[in-house]
From TrEMBL:
Family membership noted in the UniProt record: Belongs to the WD repeat POC1 family.
Protein name as catalogued: POC1 centriolar protein homolog A
Residues covered by region (Disordered): 307-348
CDD domains with a match to the protein in the record: WD40
GO-annotated biological processes: cilium assembly; microtubule-based process; multicellular organismal-level homeostasis
WD repeat windows: 9-50, 51-82, 93-134, 135-176, 177-218, 225-259, 260-292
GO CC annotations on file: centriole; ciliary basal body
InterPro entries recorded: WD40/YVTN_repeat-like_dom_sf (IPR015943), WD40_PAC1 (IPR020472), WD40_repeat_CS (IPR019775), WD40_repeat_dom_sf (IPR036322), WD40_rpt (IPR001680), WDR55/POC1 (IPR050505)
Cited function: May play an important role in centriole assembly and/or stability and ciliogenesis.
Biological source species: Cinclus mexicanus (American dipper)
Keywords: Coiled coil, Repeat, WD repeat
Amino acid sequence: EDPSLEKHFKGHRDAVTSVDFSCTKKQLASGSMDSCLMIWSMKPQMRAYRFVGHKDAVLCVQFSPSGHLVASGSRDKTVRLWIPSVKGESTVFKAHTGTVRSVHFSSDGQSLVTASDDKTIKVWTVHRQKFLFSLNQHINWVRCARFSPDGRLIVSSSDDKTVKLWDKTSRECIHSFCEHGGFVNHVDFHPSGNCIAAGGTDNTVKLWDVRMNRLLQHYQGNSVVNSLSFHPSGNYLVTASSDSTLKILDLLEGRLLYTLHGHQGPATCVAFSRDGDLFASGGSDEQVMVWKTNFDADYGEAVKPQKYGSSVDGTHGTGSEMDCGIHHKKTKTQDSSRTHEQQEEETSLANTLEHIIGQLDVLTQTVSILEQRLTLTEDKLKECLENQQKIIQNKTN
């Protein structure tokens, strides 16, 4: 089947800038130029939450791996960490001296990387939002920064037309990819961690092998690429473009599979769910759309050719195969020595650990919120005391 539009959410009052699913797919977060963060419930008849706190446009949102926190970055130069519940409580920290364009959690949920118009990338601890270090070699706005799946590398894209690869431990730039002919709006790691994809204002999507530092595939489109997301299988890539379309690229075949029309005006952001069954998109039309992927269950199999729009829309790939972890077929093997009971025990233990990590996230965030409130109370008390002292001094004088 072709991808199909499942839901569309209306509630933002300006262009949608960013979308992300929670790990369970029960919630979808979106940021907007209207300065709000929205948390949409995927269950019918459940109300959405509108989180107000940022003083200017919200340009990026992301759920933590456990799904118990949402990070957002804004033109007000701050980052907020929210608990995605009805209260909508958050902690805030001044992250940069310019607009915050990108926020991204490490896969263990312990670190956060942010990118900004102040030309820097910064890494923070999620616990207490402690600043760790800054990466400073870009010479223009940094649009996007992402951790590799194993957390050892960081990739960033910038208006200086480069994509840079950083070693998190040494904090050194280990390679600069300079093939883009315009601003690079978005970059991300392939699920294998062995290659990266970037799209930008030169209407192209490029994929590089990060081990060999060589260009693997190149797709030439007709419009600015604003955002992209890898399918968890690693075999597909979805892009959002200023010509209002979403495009799904088959990385095995090196070709365009689908062109999807839904948004009125530029499609600004796109993201697959963690299991790849759904993807969400946002646009300048203030709408958030949720699409069912409908790919063949065996993601390595060929998918039907596109039935939306024109045949290839001027898009082409260079090379039909990738050696960076894209698999031609998922083979289902089972270890006969492992019993069903052992598997159930392991699953139960994994679920329990995930629940504990999630609860720790919430506790950490609650402590941070209380600390911020105590600091505000202390500041107010100091101010009151200072005012009282001034009054006493004026009276004695």
